[in-house]
Amino acid sequence: MDYPDKMTPAQRAAAKAKGEPADRVACNPNIANGMARIAGYKISQFNDDPEALADAIIKTYRRFGADGARIFTDLFLVSEAMGAKVRKPEDNTADLEEPAINDMSEFDKLKVIDPYTQGRIPVHLRAIEIVRDEIASEVGVTASVVGPFTNAFFLIGVEKMTKMLLKDPESVHKLCEISLQSCIALTDAVLEKGVGVTISEPLSSCTVVSPKHFREFSAPYLKRLIDHIKARTGKLVIHICGITDPIWDDLVEMGVDVLSIDNVADMEKCAETVGDKMVIAGNVDPSAIMYAGSREDVRKATIKCAKQGLKAKKGFMIMSGCSLPVEVPIENIDAMMDTAREMGWPVTEEKLDYLLSFDKYKD
């Protein structure tokens, strides 16, 4: 379906940056492997067929007109290249089967990756080239790089790593350091292709580790990765799942430009607290609303999200709180995008209150 936007995402972003008129608020539903349903593939095809992966990303962008196209399938590209075993279902998202090592006595088995030859990374790098050549003139194209702290968990296993935070901090730092070096290797390979990088750092969430442990174990390595990226490119986008408000100021200090927050985070509080220092993206519930809700539920949640995001002086983008479930109804994705078009630009509280005053979708 051709989308009725009057601007491409690139034109829209450029107009807003210059203070010129734009057609609508920025919106990116964060579709992830649901692109397989849009383009008619099985998710397993993305593991070894770069043309299939690229085609699905391109077709999904063309179908919805979202303000971003991201090359992403799962969180395990780097850990797999470092020796972890990954379960790859025929038609669902990959998951960790076995960590790269069983304990720190095997640490010497871990080597910094060669992104051009190891695991599924070459598939992604080729897909990046195809997507870049096809649509980068219209929309920002990025590739997702897992954060060094999260990847370190996958090297030795989540349960063991969690215990090591308390009992063996020295080993945690060793794992984070070699993890960082592999994340940098992937980052450099991505940037060489001429696209941007987004960081996914879910296990840095305060739902998983305390702010103290985040500052001790994650922050030093995340900051180095951020510095590395920002020295080579423009804005830096990061997504952290779960509760993040105790570390929002830390992320500001690290130089994060765009913070994507989970639906359990408070969008209004985030906008008020750090929205004068970074763009806030989020945070419509991907499960209860996008997957299980009606089109009107999606519409109302999208409007309420924008109403909260208005308080961010640096700006906001409407997104789902995390990657959408694979089977999310296509009509709900349409509802989110169409609601962004309803809002237009500029977005005002009065306009949003008016849109909330009536139901657009009547079943």
Automatic annotation (TrEMBL):
UniProt-listed SUPFAM superfamilies: UROD/MetE-like
Q: Which protein are we looking at?
A: Uroporphyrinogen decarboxylase (URO-D)
PANTHER family noted in UniProt: METHYLCOBAMIDE:COM METHYLTRANSFERASE MTBA
Q: Which Pfam families match?
A: URO-D
Q: List, in alphabetical order, the GO biological process terms annotated in this UniProt record.
A: porphyrin-containing compound biosynthetic process
Q: Which GO terms describe its molecular function?
A: uroporphyrinogen decarboxylase activity
Quote the InterPro entries the UniProt record gives: Methanogen_methyltrans, UROD/MetE-like_sf, Uroporphyrinogen_deCOase
Per the record, which residues fall in region Disordered?
A: 1-20
Q: Which residues form the Uroporphyrinogen decarboxylase (URO-D) domain?
A: 8-342
User: Gene3D superfamilies recorded for this chain?
Assistant: 3.20.20.210
